[in-house]
Amino acid sequence: MQIIRIDATFDRYEELLALILHAFAYMDGRIDPPSSAHMLTIEGLREKASAEIGYVAVDGSGLAGCIFCKPETDCLYIGKLAVSATCRGKGVGRTLLASAEDAARSRHLAALRLLTRIELTENQKTFSAWGFVETDRTAHPGFTRPTSIEMRKRL
């Protein structure tokens, strides 16, 4: 497996969009509101890649996973961490997260931050096992109940 930075030479946006949509499909019908992944487009991914730090994991000739990171004042925000169904449990997520940790350290940011949905308890357990701790619960606009859990990992 090889980790590649998504830069101006990256030309696999159709495959990247398909990876994210397939990886997030298990959430359909489980989370409310629906995942923002459904609003992604190829052009939107290009814009995201130019505004954020993105990495893909390549396994053979296919994309095994991706992660997008956005520097904030005191941390690096992790978004759209996706691993293909055929590569889950093989260390792809941890390897992508290690790239995010390196990006945070190189920017002198002391933590990673992410949001996971309340309903996705398996994700919460995985992130906890990777060193993240719950720091807050938030609600999407229009909701009176918490819909997301913020988690942080100190570096």
State the gist of this model:
The chain is an alpha+beta fold and 155 residues long. The chain has four helices and seven strands; from the N terminus they run βααβββαβαββ.
Describe the structure.
There is one protein chain. The chain is of the alpha+beta class. Helices cover 30% and strands 32% of the residues. Helix 1 packs across helix 2 (42-51).
What is the strand arrangement across the widest sheet? 1-2-3-4-5-7-6
Number of strands: 7
State the helix count: 4
Q: For the residues shown, what is the average pLDDT?
A: 94
Morphology call:
globular
CA(first)-CA(last) distance: 24 Å
**Topology as H/E string?**
EHHEEEHEHEE
Which key terms come to mind for this protein?
alpha+beta, 4 helices, seven-stranded mixed β-sheet
Layout of strands and helices, then pairs:
Elements: E1 2-5, H1 13-24, H2 42-51, E2 53-59, E3 62-71, E4 76-83, H3 92-106, E5 111-117, H4 121-129, E6 133-138, E7 148-154
Parallel strand pairs: 4-5
Antiparallel strand pairs: 1-2, 2-3, 3-4, 5-7, 6-7
Helix pairs in contact: 1-2
